[in-house]
Amino acid sequence: MRRLPPRALAALTTAGLLILAGCGTETEDPGGPAAPADGARTIRAQQVMQLTRTHEETGMTLLEGPAFGPDGGLFVVDVTAPAGKPKVMRVDVRRKTVRAVHTDARGAYTSAQFSPYDGRLHLTDYAHGEIVSLAPDGSDPRTFFSGEIDGARMNPDDIAFDERGHLYVSDSRGLSEGAEHGRVVRIDRDGGKATVLADHLAATNGVSFDEEYRGLWISELTQNRVSYLRLSGGGTGGEGAERGEAGQGGEVTSRHTAIRVDGGIAQTDSIAVDADGNLYQGLHGRPAILVYNRHGERLATVEVPAGAKGLESATNVAITPGGTRAYMTVSGPGGGYLYAFDALGKGTRQSNGG
To answer: Which structural domain range is residue 193 located in?
Structure first.
């Protein structure tokens, strides 16, 4: 990554986060738009509102999430927000208002997702290897999971929930040394048991179920590729699911590289999936989203307007449940913004960007 400003380096050292593995490495220049593949079209996103400015304490801002809550609000995290500044925000996209939901003196949160089991908001704390949960209004913070898994702590990045509320977490271990130590970890919905489903991955970042919950799409940031993990039991909890039990289930039965992303200086960040099975691949290092179908064909590139300045990344996207209006988090030296566009398919649980 590029050299961070001294203030940012000091702040991130204090937080235990010397690099933002959950959100990619820093780049010098977001670059211009790449030539589209045959048949791919360009979709121009429109600015909705600015959510953050560069923090004096850390020298940067980086928005992630986003996830629609049960009340229709859009929840967004700011990875580099210092203590006392909003680390979780709720956006009313119709009224174009934003309010703080949560802050603390410790966490560096790289994703947000609501559990279908208990309705709580779950956050990945990359810096401390923990998953924290909150009530939807930001109250009652709890440590949902912490500790080692198979002898190593996680660097948790994104979350995908299966239909029974078990968590599938991208563990971005190995980014700092460039080693393929990344993992996909399954955590029971009560936080009591964690299992490594896949390892030797290249800085695992995005994770999302496909439209039928048969497998997981995962992005590997340092290899600019999207892999597909087919699961036993369709990710529904395996044996005992029909009886309403929290079965272990969901083991990986096969794994392969599905898409190779020609990102140039940009890297593959988070993933969302619409009701038609299309993948929305966020980029760190370029303010754009690449859209693929389930067969790996690139359908579209979502770009911010050419005149937008100071924007380097479009990390993630959420599509309105049951609708096609999509919102992506875009950040850079110019601040943190929410942009909107019309998605190719309708939003579902997998369309919350984890």
So the answer is: 6-30+40-351
